[in-house]
């Protein structure tokens, strides 16, 4: 009995061997979504925080970084905090009248 026959629409394969993911994708009647499971799944998921390098202390094997924004975000957050503490934000331009 295929997965579709029992009401399954999709399945997620997390950190699965590529060969196993290929076998599952070819065998079940449901969409497979890979999270570190290789190219044979029907779709792919990559957590945006991992993809954009928001946490440099942690990088799972399956993550491909497309940016390294951790330092940029930290710097900009500190600018925001400084502006709020010093009364520069919100100013007239960023307030409703």
Brief summary:
By secondary structure, the chain is an alpha/beta fold. It has three helices and three strands.
Give structural notes.
The protein is 31% helix and 12% strand. The chain has three helices and three strands; from the N terminus they run βαββαα. α1 (18-27) links the parallel β1 (10-14) and β2 (31-35). It has one domain (3-88). The protein has a three-stranded parallel β-sheet, with helices on one face. It is an alpha/beta fold and 97 residues long.
Strands in their spatial order, largest beta sheet: 1-2-3
Tally of helical segments: 3
Gyration radius, to the nearest Å? Answer: 22 Å
Tell me, rounded to a whole number, the average pLDDT: 91
How many structural domains can be distinguished in the coordinates?
Answer: 1
Which residue ranges are poorly predicted, with pLDDT under 50 across at least 5 consecutive positions?
none
SSE arrangement, N to C: EHEEHH
Helix content: 25-40%
> What fraction of residues sit in β-strands?
5-15%
> What overall form do the CA principal axes indicate?
elongated
- End-to-end distance: 64 Å
Tell me about the largest β-sheet.
3 strands, parallel
User: What structural class do helix, strand and pairing data support?
Assistant: alpha/beta
For this structure, the quaternary state is single chain
Number of strands: 3
List keywords for this structure.
97 residues, alpha/beta, 3-stranded parallel sheet
Strands, helices and their partners?
Layout: E1 10-14, H1 18-27, E2 31-35, E3 43-44, H2 48-51, H3 70-85
Parallel strand pairs: 1-2, 2-3
């Amino acid at each position: 009995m295929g997965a579709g026959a029992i009401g399954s629409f999709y399945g997620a394969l997390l950190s699965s061997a590529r060969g196993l993911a290929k076998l599952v994708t070819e065998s079940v009647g449901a969409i497979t979504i890979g999270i570190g499971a290789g190219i044979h799944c029907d779709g792919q998921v990559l957590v945006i925080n991992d993809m954009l390098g928001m946490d440099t202390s942690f990088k799972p094997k399956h993550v491909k970084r497309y940016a390294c924004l951790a330092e940029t975000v930290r710097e900009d957050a500190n600018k925001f905090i400084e502006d709020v503490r010093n009364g520069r934000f919100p100013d007239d331009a960023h307030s409703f009248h």
